[in-house]
Amino acid sequence: MEFAVRKRLLRPVSLFSVSFLTMVFVVLYSLQGNYKKRMIFPVSQHKRASRSVWHNVTAADFIRNMTRKRFLTCRHFLPYSYPATKSSEFRTEKQCTRRSPVGHYRTCAIVGNGGILLSSGCGMKIDSNEFVIRVAHSPIESFEKDVGQKVNLTVVNDVFLGKLQKKGIDPNWLRSRNNSIISYVLNHNNNLKTLNDVVRKSHLNITITNSKYPTRALVRKFWNDTRKTFLEVPTAGLITYTLASTFCDVITLYGFYPFGQDWNNRTLLYHYYQSGLAKIFFDKNKLHDYPSEHKILKSLHNLKALKMVTDVCT
């Protein structure tokens, strides 16, 4: 470490050039699935430099710069309005940013609903983040030890909105989202109005947001172009991570593990709160390409651009 710092002081210009080119090559090569050996980027002196040993600021910033070129955070998290607000009302990024309730955050936890979370004891680690994002309609009550109880943003999908129209909404679940944002990032769904009406009647402090763009198609194109894969229907988890990378400095993923057994050969449930076995579901599911998505996130984990927790928290 001392040698690296000394060398940087002696030859700052040349080292920066080499480091930057190396970083570009390694990140792109890794995203294409060809990077095999572990490589450690030079330590950045960025003002947001992480205290976490695992986090590589240079790699995370590189990914963020890539996603920000395709995704403007505020346009995917605008307050819901009925009738819909015209996109032309937000002609500048500044106007758009003023309307969005989503800001920029130092540390973010993205909590999926994978069975790997059950008995993980990760609740306190999750809650220690500045901003906690939960994917889909996963419950918190009775699972606080494993999934925490803090929530700032919940990303819901068509399944959730469809059930809302037919069966209504669990009042306990809704109360657990008080003082937070519930977001539907897939442009527009007719049931959003129903959700918005339910929230208003509840008198809870919940903001409903939705996207002004076809987010799923944009995410699919982004990763297919970057990684040269053939994703057709990205999961809510991958969509959430992609958008979060534009406004979070340090991202940790929990519950992102599409396999039937963990590292200790423990049989896993599909969801931490349901009884169905993960292996049976993943074998039958043809809508999402879970293995390819896992490879994408795993490659970013190996580069330390994000952290994917797949074990118990200590």
Automatic annotation (TrEMBL):
**Membrane topology reported for the UniProt record:** Single-pass type II membrane protein
Q: Which family does it belong to?
A: Belongs to the glycosyltransferase 29 family.
What cystine linkages occur within this chain?
C108-C248
**What are the protein's UniProt keywords?**
Glycoprotein, Glycosyltransferase, Golgi apparatus, Membrane, Signal-anchor, Transferase, Transmembrane, Transmembrane helix
Q: Which Pfam families match?
A: Glyco_transf_29
Name the domain of life. Answer: Eukaryota
Q: Which organism is it from?
A: Branchiostoma floridae
Transmembrane spans: 12-31
Tell me the Gene3D superfamilies matching this sequence.
Answer: Glycosyl transferase family 29 (3.90.1480.20)
Q: Does the keyword Transmembrane helix apply?
A: yes
The name this protein carries in UniProt is Alpha-2,8-sialyltransferase 8B-like
What subcellular compartments does it reside in?
Golgi apparatus membrane
GO BP annotations of the record are: N-glycan processing; oligosaccharide metabolic process
One GO location term (cellular component): Golgi membrane
What GO molecular functions are on record for this protein?
A: alpha-N-acetylneuraminate alpha-2,8-sialyltransferase activity
Per its UniProt record, what InterPro entries does this chain match?
Glyco_trans_29, Glycosyltr_29_Sialyltrsf, GT29-like_sf
Gene this protein is translated from: LOC118410936
